[in-house]
Structures are given as C-alpha cells and as structure tokens.
C-alpha cells in the first residue's frame, strides 16, 4: 500500500492497523536507495566473519545544504545540530520511513539535542554497539570547505555491521537529515568496506506541523509518519532544487576503516581530527598542506566569526580574505606597493559584500 496521505488520519490508521505502508523489504532489509545513496564504496581486505581485530570507522559529516541547491527560504543563520552516528544490529532502527518517529529522533529533529537519543540507544542494549557525536556547526556561506564535522571512531563488528547517522536542521520545525541501516560490509565479498560515502537527504519527523524553517513550535496532536522530503510533499518548496524537479542531498557522510592489532583493541588512528581541522578525506594530506592545490606550509589565520573553526589555516590568509594570526597584517603587507592597493580595494569589496550579505 502506498501511503499517499500524510494527514493525521492516515497516521492514525497506520498506527492502529499496523499496515506496513510502502516499506520495501528485500532479504528482510530495507532497500537502501529509498533512504540514502551509497555513491562510493571500496572493499578492504578485512573479512567481517570472525574478525578478531577491532574494526572502527572514522567518519566526516559534510554539509551539502546550500542556498544554490536548496534555494527556497534558505535561513540566514543555518546550522546543523550535533550529528550522531552509531553501529547496531538489523533489529535496531533509529527511524523508519512511514513509521512514527521515536522520541529520540523527535528531539533531535525539533531541538537538536541528543541526550534522549543517547538514552534510547543505551536502552537498546545489545542491539547497539557503539555511538559517536560530532560537533554541530553553523554553515559558513563563504568557505564551504569548513562545513564539516569529525566523528570519533565508531566500532563495528560482524554482529553490529550497520551504521545509522542523523543530524537536525537548525532552524527547522522537525526536519533532519540522516540514513539508517547502511551495511558496512560488502555483501558479496563478506569484507568490510575500507572507504565509503553516503549521501543523505532531508526528512520530516512528522511531529511538528511547521511549514517554514523558522516556524514557531506547532506540535502535532497526531504525529505523522517519518517521511523523506520530496518535490511533491515539500512545504513551501523548501529543499527542492532550483529546477524544481528533485531534492538534492543535504549532507554526506564519508568514512574510512581503521583496524587495530588484535592485542590492541581501542587503538586510535593518529591525527584524527587533524590539528588544522581540514577535510583529510576530501583533501588527503591537507593536514600537512592546508590547501591541496598549494604545495606549501600554511599560515594560521584569525577567525572571522564564530562560524569559523577555532584553528584555521590557509596557504595565504590575506589571499583568502582573512588576517594572519602572526606577522604583518594584510594592510601592513600591502602598504607602499601600488599593486597591493588593489588588494585592499578587493578586500574592502569582499568585506562589504560579506556584511551586505549578512544584513540581507
Ligand atoms: C589483526 O591483528 C593481528 C595481530 O595483531 C595483525 O597481525 C594483523 O595484521 C591485524 N589485521 C589487520 C587487518 O590489521
């Protein structure tokens, strides 16, 4: 049965009759492409069965929520709240398409707090193995590369091979992004993936009736089922692509496998996250060179705002429109040379458009 109505009556019907709506099962598992896209995955040499070594995934949460891809009503100050990631058995699902959201999901989607979710995961006992949180962040709309967060390692085993991840949109009534039941093993080779990328989409937790990002609380008396936001059901076209025909991913989870020697469980991959906070999965070696295009050691720059990471490196702070933390400031460097006056003008224009942008 396809659930075409998202009214409270529909939800009630679903709840009282236990109809499984259109959850498609294949080998007892939910067909993942209705939930997320696994758009890159590479095998490791590590057989999942009877694995004695501890296997951990190190993941980065990357925002793809942009005003270019999701133009409608894009909030001025947009933030992802604390992204969470955990490993579990197939008996545990944090949320399911067309089922009512549990309280942990509701709180993440509405408030961005993860304590309820943590409680529920604790109570799930053996079904949940490991759990990690990354830092929520405000979107930097000038430097997209900074819109990432590092997860601590999450342990997986052959018994707990599934990963699920969630992060709330802030502001939003009850919208979140995430994926569930991502198998970290290649089902054909039986090996863990060594590296994969998951694209995740916006979802509506069905617990709040708000229709724009900034809506005040509008708790639904009869919660609706959790559903993925599509061009057909999007409120005020929020999240719909500029062409109006699709909803593009809003986040990406990229993970790499790390294997501990058998005698050293709980080992840690060194330099995670790297000191300069750069995206080492997107730009390998950027912990040594802050910019993959530039083959030089970097300068530490002054934070422009709370949207920046505390420690920020660029090959050339001034060229990146920032002030260096040490040495001559950008004005000092430019003084005296005509060509460098242009630099000042450029940075002035840069700054004014930055200010104008935020005041818009
Ligand atoms: C597993 O641990 C053993 C013993 O420490 C080690 O020799 C082996 O290389 C480890 N396997 C992997 C894939 O790291």
How does CATH name the architecture? Sandwich
CATH class: Mainly Beta
Most strands sheet: 13 strands, antiparallel
Q: What integer value in Å does the Rg equal? A: 22 Å
| Ligands | 2-acetamido-2-deoxy-beta-D-glucopyranose
* Whole-number mean pLDDT: 81
Count of distinct strands:
17
How many individual domains?
1
> Element order, helices and strands?
HEEEEEEHHEEEEEEEEEEEHH
Spans where pLDDT lies below 50 across 5 or more residues: 1-29, 291-295, 335-360
Organism: Fistulifera solaris (Oleaginous diatom)
Transmembrane segments: 337-359
Domain Spondin: 45-237
Signal peptide: 1-21
Written overview of the protein:
Strands 3, 4, 5, 6, 7, 8, 9, 10, 11, 12, 13, 14 and 15 form a 13-stranded antiparallel beta sheet that branches. The chain contains five helices and 17 strands. Strand 11 and strand 12 form a beta hairpin. The chain has 360 residues and is of the alpha+beta class. The protein has a single domain (2-259), classed as Immunoglobulin-like. It is globular and about 60 Å long. The chain starts with 7 loop residues before the first helix and ends with a helix. It has helices spanning 8-17, 103-110, 115-123, 330-334, 338-359, and strands at residues 25-26, 29-30, 36-47, 55-63, 79-80, 84-88, 128-133, 137-138, 148-150, 154-156, 162-170, 175-183, 191-204, 227-228, 251-259, 299-300, 313-314. Helices cover 15% and strands 26% of the residues. 2-acetamido-2-deoxy-beta-D-glucopyranose (NAG) is lined by residues 46, 53, 259, 261-263. Residues 45-237 form the Spondin domain.
């Amino acid at each position: 049965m396809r659930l075409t109505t998202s009214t409270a009556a529909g939800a009630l019907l679903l709840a009282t009759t236990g109809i499984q709506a259109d959850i498609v099962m294949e080998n007892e598992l939910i067909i993942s492409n209705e939930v997320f896209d696994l758009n890159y995955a590479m095998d490791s040499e590590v057989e999942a069965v009877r694995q004695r070594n501890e296997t951990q995934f190190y993941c980065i949460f990357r925002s793809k929520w942009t005003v270019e891809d999701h133009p409608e009503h894009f909030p001025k100050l947009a933030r992802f709240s604390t992204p969470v990631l955990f490993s579990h058995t197939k008996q545990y699902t944090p949320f399911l398409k067309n089922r009512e959201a549990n309280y942990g999901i509701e709180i993440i989607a509405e408030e961005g707090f993860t304590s309820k979710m943590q409680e529920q995961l604790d109570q799930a006992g053996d079904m949940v193995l490991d759990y990690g949180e990354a830092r929520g962040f405000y979107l930097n709309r000038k430097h997209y590369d900074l819109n990432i967060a590092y997860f601590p390692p999450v342990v997986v085993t052959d018994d707990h091979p599934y990963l699920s991840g969630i992060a709330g949109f802030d502001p939003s009534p009850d919208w979140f992004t995430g994926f569930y039941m991502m198998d970290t093993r290649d089902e054909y080779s039986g090996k863990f993936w060594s590296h994969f990328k998951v694209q995740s989409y916006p979802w509506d937790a069905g617990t709040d009736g708000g229709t724009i990002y900034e809506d005040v609380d509008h708790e639904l008396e009869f919660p609706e089922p959790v559903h993925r936001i599509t061009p057909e059901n999007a409120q005020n076209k929020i999240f719909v692509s500029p062409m109006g025909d699709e909803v593009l991913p809003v986040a990406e989870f990229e993970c790499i496998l790390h294997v501990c020697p058998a005698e050293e469980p709980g080992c840690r991959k060194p330099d995670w996250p790297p000191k300069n906070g750069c995206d080492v999965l997107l730009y390998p070696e950027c912990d040594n060179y802050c910019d993959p295009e530039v083959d030089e050691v970097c300068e530490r720059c002054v934070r422009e705002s709370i949207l920046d990471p505390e420690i920020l490196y660029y090959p050339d702070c001034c060229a990146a429109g920032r002030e260096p933390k040490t040495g001559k400031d950008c004005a000092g460097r430019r003084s005296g040379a005509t060509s460098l006056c242009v630099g000042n003008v450029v940075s002035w224009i840069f700054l004014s458009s930055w200010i104008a942008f935020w005041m818009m």
